[in-house]
From TrEMBL:
Top-level lineage group: Bacteria
Name of the featured protein: diguanylate cyclase
Cofactor dependency: Mg(2+)
Enzyme Commission number, as recorded: 2.7.7.65
Organism: Halopseudomonas yangmingensis
One Pfam short name: GGDEF
Amino acid sequence: MSFIQESSTEFDSARLTLVHPRDKEQQHPLKTEPLFNLPAMQQRLLQLLQTTLELPRVLELFFRELHGQMCVDGLEYRHESHKLNLALGVQKLHRCSYRMTHEGAYLGEVVFCRGKRFSERQLQILEALLGSLLFPLRNALLYRQAIAAALNDSLTCAGNRLALEQSLQREIQHSIRQRSDLSIIAIDLDHFKKINDSYGHAIGDEALKATVNCINDCLRAVDGVYRMGGEEFVAVLPNTAVEAALLVAERICRRIAGMQFAIDGQDIPLSASLGVATRRTDESAATMLERADQLMYQAKQNGRNCVVGESATH
Ligand SMILES: Nc1nc2c(ncn2[C@@H]2O[C@H](COP(=O)(O)OP(=O)(O)OP(=O)(O)O)[C@@H](O)[C@H]2O)c(=O)[nH]1
């Protein structure tokens, strides 16, 4: 019967050492093994890991070095609030995990695994090498945060206009290469000014957040939702022909109208008008957005709380 090694340790940068009972027995500095030059590997990692700010790449470089030198079979990295869950190499039974922290800030959990037990000596070396990962990891997380702030609407967490432009360009290129359909849906809340005027701006903000959640619930993981500004949103649906996009738009329309949005027990009615555009041959992102917008305004003219679409073959 194999014994599965599971250990969980706090790795805090303040001391660049361990908060683990085992440490109490290890008052002396790390000694290098005859065939393993720890300072040289730390130096190499230091140089290697500062070549990129992309978190998956940082972890890949770190793992590649460890895999070659330390017989580590797999590495996992998790950070819930960053929605990160990465796995490299092969996942095996014996695992040791480290909660990485720096000045009180949580930097995620690193898990090493291998088919054979980790010896005490190997754990010491791994822990020393984690010191080389700490600052590149922190920098990569800060970089992700900065990118996310530049591309996300801070109120609703939907993508912003810049993110929409980038995503739509990317999806247009993809649809040309794959000869696949691409649809977008312009979504605008009805009489939103009345909600702000009647219940206040803060409740209006809550309504916008609830709307984004509602739209997201109607979309696939590959689709995206973006806030154009005010109470107008755009959903991007790769690989989606006009008929399917109309069904999705109808679903969003019904869900927003049926949403139980209540403040202090009082129901606040919400509805939206939607325009669906499927990309025509050679159509640019700007023209597609303009067309979806015009169709959405047609829905407003048709009495609101409805969807207007147009065939891609017009
Ligand atoms: N609470 C809140 N309100 C916003 C935000 N951005 C824009 N608004 C408000 O959204 C309202 C949009 O009003 P209008 O453009 O007249 O549109 P509407 O009242 O939804 O009417 P129709 O679109 O014609 O159905 C304005 O009152 C804006 O002040 C925001 O971030 N938070």
